[in-house]
Write a structure and sequence with these properties.
alpha/beta; Glutaredoxin; 5-stranded mixed sheet; 10 helices; 5 strands; Thioredoxin-related transmembrane protein 2; membrane
Length: about 260
């Protein structure tokens, strides 16, 4: 497992090798890694190496080397969590019905500022996050139940648009607890978010269930208020055209002139 994890990450990153080879640092690191495996496992070379194994075989890793490789593998997996999805059992991507608008780094600000009468609930997510994929069907179901003219649901992939995560202060670190993040916008401004962030910048633990979202964001109240506003806008009376009054004819004119 200690050797298999870096190899899987390497195979997954084959399309990027061309860019790596253009930098001597990455090329030298790859050569040193391969050289270590060859020297440590190839019989003509490893036979002369000292070993602390009980069986005296110098071509197998001893317990200290296994511990070091396992530790390094854990560091590689944490730093490259997005590339490690092949090694974990992830829930399938949600492909069901939804009433959600997807933003990119340019459209999110424009849409929030376009009509400040509209209340937005926006999910900041990343495709590589298990928690985001588990929450996807719940969020889609909420959008089908509560979406209306004055209450809209949106999503933005902060794993793809890193400037959005920086602008809205949503961490995309492999060890972050801020994915997914739900933010309520009213009048184009942030009103509340879940999970909350404490004074030390850490996310406060919060369960992304349908009941919690409805309760914390007052979706029932927001929905009723948005419906009333939309009905009030639809029932606004239109201005009726003013009928023109006939002009009076001076008394001195004859019937023919009239």
């Amino acid at each position: 497992m200690a050797v298999l994890a870096p190899l899987i990450a390497l195979v997954y990153s084959v399309p990027r090798l061309s860019r790596w080879l253009a930098r001597p640092y990455y090329l030298l690191s790859a050569l040193l890694s391969v050289a270590f495996l060859l020297v440590r496992k190839l019989p003509p070379l490893c036979n002369s190496l000292p070993t602390q194994r009980e069986d005296g075989n110098p071509c197998d890793f001893d317990w200290r080397e296994v511990e070091i490789l396992m530790f390094l593998s854990a560091i590689v997996m944490m730093k490259n969590r997005r590339s490690m999805f092949l090694m974990t059992c992830k829930p399938p991507l949600y492909m069901g019905p939804e009433y959600i608008k997807y933003f990119n780094d340019k459209t999110i600000d424009e849409e929030l500022e376009r009509d400040k009468r509209v209340t937005w609930i926006v999910e900041f997510f990343a495709n590589w996050s298990n928690d985001c994929q588990s929450f996807a069907p719940i969020y889609a179901d909420l959008s089908l139940k509560y979406n209306c003219t004055g209450l809209n649901f949106g999503k933005v992939d902060v794993g793809r648009y890193s400037d959005v995560s920086t602008r809205y202060k949503v961490s995309t670190s492999p060890l972050t607890k801020q994915l997914p993040t739900l933010i309520l916008f009213q009048g184009g401004k942030e009103v509340m978010r879940r999970p909350q962030i404490d004074k030390k910048g850490r996310a406060v633990s919060w369960t992304f269930s349908e009941e919690n979202v409805i309760r914390e964001f007052n979706l029932n109240e927001l929905y009723q208020r948005a419906k009333k506003l939309s009905k009030a806008g639809d029932n606004t009376p239109e201005e009726q055209p003013v009928a023109s009054t006939p002009t009076e004819v001076p008394d001195g004119e004859s019937k023919k002139d009239k």
